[in-house]
Structure formats: C-alpha cells, structure tokens
C-alpha cells in the first residue's frame, strides 16, 4: 500500500492541472504528457542521465569486482577492508554531496596550488564536463562498496575445487578467475548492474548538494528536472508525467538488462 497507493495517485495527477495548493484538480486529459514530450530541457536532462548512468554503472561494477577479488584472496585484514569499503554506502546522499563539494572546491584546489598541479588548481565543479566527472566519481565512491559485498558473495559461492582443477589443468590464477569463476558469477553481475542502474537513474540528493545542477544547468539530471517542474514551477501534473516517463525508461532498461543476463545464465 505504501508504494501502490502513491503510484496510483501520481498517475491520476498526470491527467490534472493541479498546482499543489488548490483544492480542485481540473482534468486536462493527456495535455501533461504532451507538455512532457515537448519539454526539450527534460529530454536533455534524460540524455545526460543516460550518459551519466552508463559510465557510472561500468565504473562502479569494475571497481566493485576488483575490490571483491582483492578481499577474497586471503590478504591480511581483509574483513577490515570489507567494512571500510562498505562505509561510504552508509552515508546519506545529502551529507555525501556536501562533503565532496568541500573536497572538490577547497581540498583539491589547495593541493593543486601548493603542489603546483595544474588540473587541480581550479574546482572541477566549475565546468560542465568537470561537474559530470565529479558526479561519476562520487557515485563510484558511494556504490562500489555495496556492490562489492554482492560480488564477494559470488566469489565465495564458487567451489574452490573448481579453481584447483583449473590450475591443475595448467591455468594461471588470473586465467582460472576469468574462465571459471566469472561465468559462474553471472547472477551477481545481473544483480549488481540492475541495482546500479536504478540508483543512477534516480539520483537526486547528490545532484542537489554537489552541483545544484550547475554550472548553468549543465548537470541537471532527470530527477532534479522533474522535481523543479513539480515543486518550483508548481506544474505537478507535468512533473508527475515526466516522473512516470523516467520510471518507465528506468524500468525498461533495468528489466531488459535482467532478461538478457538471466537468458545468458540459463544458456551457460
């Protein structure tokens, strides 16, 4: 009920011109959907979100896999490292954004000036490309530890006898990992990629506190645009229609990825 009722009510609002204050909700049919599809800024934000999500999903999962591989090799203090890598996921997005904003605007700039490192002398948040890079860096830092735990479970679910058999057959440890363990961890890859996609598509808190959509609205993601449309411009119907479109795009991408992953898992 906590999810279904607001979803149904939100769908109803897409057919009204409610301003968020009035007690009446005039019915306007599909006018809000027409406004949403005709909103160029929304589609620019959607395209930006797709690019951000594609890059972040790849980097998060590559980093998470490498971390999981490292902490399952029997290194000294590996449990400490697992906990340490997971901690960033426990920090709320609002706090995380402010912390990293200080890092990019002050800490890195001070290091760049003191050590005469050119690319650190100016805040990366001051340029469109830099702001996008900062968003991706924070996403990797925040999500990699959580996904690492799923990959750790995947590594531990593979029988050690398979690795031993592969090495007896002449495989090096890296070859055995790539040709034996990785194919058996397909379920972990499917789960991690799906979770990362959904989180990146719906990013708002870090977007708000880290870049605030700047500079010059060049880092406004789809969720932020939807929020501004609904709560700043008081166009709740159009905002809700755009939110529904964002949800459907995210659902289609996520379900397609899971379907392809599961299909490959069965084939394997």
Task: Characterise the protein shown here.
There is one protein chain. The protein is mostly helical and 268 residues long. 74% of the residues lie in helices and 0% in strands. The chain has 12 helices and no strands. Helix 3 crosses helix 11 and helix 6 runs antiparallel to helix 10. The protein starts with a helix and ends with a helix. The model has no long low-confidence stretch (mean pLDDT 89).
Distance between the termini: 39 Å
**Element order, helices and strands?**
HHHHHHHHHHHH
Largest sheet report: none
Q: Which percent range fits the helix content?
A: over 70%
As a percent range, the share of strand residues is: under 5%
Structural class: mainly alpha
Low-confidence stretches: none
* Number of discrete helical segments: 12
Radius of gyration: 22 Å
Query: Got a strand count?
Result: 0
